[in-house]
Specification:
InterPro entries: Dihydroneopterin_aldolase, FolB_dom, GTP-CH-I_C/QueF. By secondary structure, the protein is an alpha+beta fold. 29% of the residues lie in helices and 31% in strands. The protein has one domain: GTP Cyclohydrolase I, domain 2, CATH 3.30.1130. The chain contains 3 helices and 4 strands; from the N terminus they run ββαααββ. The chain has a 4-stranded antiparallel sheet, covered by helices on one side. Helix 2 packs antiparallel against helix 3. The longest helix is centred in the C-terminal third of the chain and has 16 residues. Bound molecules: the ligand Nc1nc2c(c(=O)[nH]1)N=C([C@H](O)[C@@H](O)CO)CN2. The site of the ligand Nc1nc2c(c(=O)[nH]1)N=C([C@H](O)[C@@H](O)CO)CN2 has 9 residues, from helix 3. Ligand LV4SOB2L binds next to helix 3.
Length: 119
């Protein structure tokens, strides 16, 4: 199995469980590892056969920026579902971080894996 990855993708959203969080936008940071067979793209040097990380990034940013969940867990599921269904990715690992949410921590967030990981 090969991986196409996107690291430290940033997008702003309404996100949070507290009242004060419902009227502001906060920056979220996302890492994605996407299972893909890169050999057909490499053999043909063809973007049509590649998993286009620019297209995935753009779609994920648009999803996050249009969202208004309370929990990171809910947003992570939504992003995972759209990447699996719209891009034909069989498996992914997604880390969604909310920097600054806990002052004493560098970072907090959720890490999920969805789909079936190919051999
Ligand atoms: N597991 C989670 N814990 C917490 C979340 C969350 O989304 N998932 N959110 C909050 C608050 O919104 C917090 O980020 C405000 O600083 C607390 N815990």
């Amino acid at each position: 199995m090969d991986i196409v990855f996107i690291r430290e993708l940033r997008a702003d959203a309404v996100i949070g469980v507290y009242d004060w969080e419902r009227s502001i936008r906060q920056t979220l940071v996302l890492d994605l590892e996407l299972a893909w067979d890169n050999r057909p793209a490499a053999a043909g040097d063809a973007i049509e056969r590649a998993l286009d990380y620019a297209a995935v990034s753009s779609r994920v940013i648009s999803c996050i920026e249009g969202s208004s969940f309370r929990l990171l867990e809910s947003l992570a599921e939504e992003v995972a579902e759209l990447v699996l269904s719209e891009f034909g990715v069989p498996w992914l690992r997604l880390r969604l971080c909310k920097p600054g949410a806990v002052l004493q921590a560098r970072d907090v967030g959720v890490l999920i894996e969805r789909g079936n990981r190919p051999e």
